[in-house]
Amino acid sequence: MTKLRRCIWVDDYTQKYHDEEWGEPVYDDRLLFEMLVLESFQAGLSWVIVLKKREGFRAAFDNFDPELIKDYSQEKIEQLQTDDRIIKSKAKIVATVNNAKVFLAIQQEFGSFANYLWKFTDNKIITIHDNQLPEEYQGLAAKISKNLKKRGMKFMGEVTTYSYLQAIGVVNNHDSFCYKCQG
Q: N or C: which end of the chain has fewer CB within 10 A?
């Protein structure tokens, strides 16, 4: 039996995530919001830390429902700051409440968050070759990050936005030897 070759960062813990989710194109707004929240909490930390707490985040943040999260009270925010199931950063928790409002406003404006996001690539998946974005997409993460910030999003800088684009399949960045590389 031949062993599948995977991206170099994959280990026993991240294999299922890599094989089933990472880089798969996402058009479902609930999952887009979930990944946005998780990526924003990952800022400055290891993705494995966030991945290990994912179910805790899901429970603590009402299954990532932006309609519920946008109305979180100060009391709820303080409660989340003591919740061991998640990363207890007050700034990131407050940003999540804020980002839920921005996310919903984008949905309202574009019909869905997916419509907004995928318009930046004309609904195309961008495949990386030799670790380089095609020339016409250089600066894509910076452009989206700038637009999100202009709309009021927090913790979605250029690096976090690029990681988000990889996670949700806008950018296909599997290593060239990985069985999931489509380029």
A: N
Is 158 assigned a catalytic role?
no
5: three-class secondary structure by DSSP: coil
pLDDT > 70: what percent of the chain?
95
183 pLDDT exceeds 60?
Answer: no
109 is catalytic: no
Q: How confident is the model at residue 81 (pLDDT cuts 50, 70, 90)?
A: very high
Q: How far apart are CA 87 and CA 96, in angstroms?
A: 12
The one catalytic residue in 22, 39, 72, 164 is 39
Return the amino acid letter for 51.
Answer: L
Q: Residue 38 in contact with residue 62, Cβ under 8 Å? A: no
- Both tokens assigned to 19: 């094989």
Q: Find out whether 181 is annotated in a ligand binding site.
A: no
Q: How far apart are CA 37 and CA 17, in angstroms?
A: 16
Helix (H, G, I), strand (E, B) or coil at 89: coil
30 φ, ψ (degrees, to nearest 5) = -65, -45
Average pLDDT over residues 139-144: 94
Q: Is the pLDDT of residue 46 over 80?
A: yes
Assess whether pLDDT exceeds 70 at residue 168. yes
47 is catalytic: yes
Looking at domain 22-172, its CATH superfamily turns out to be Hypothetical protein; domain 2 (1.10.340.30)
Name the catalytic one among 21, 24, 27, 47. Answer: 47
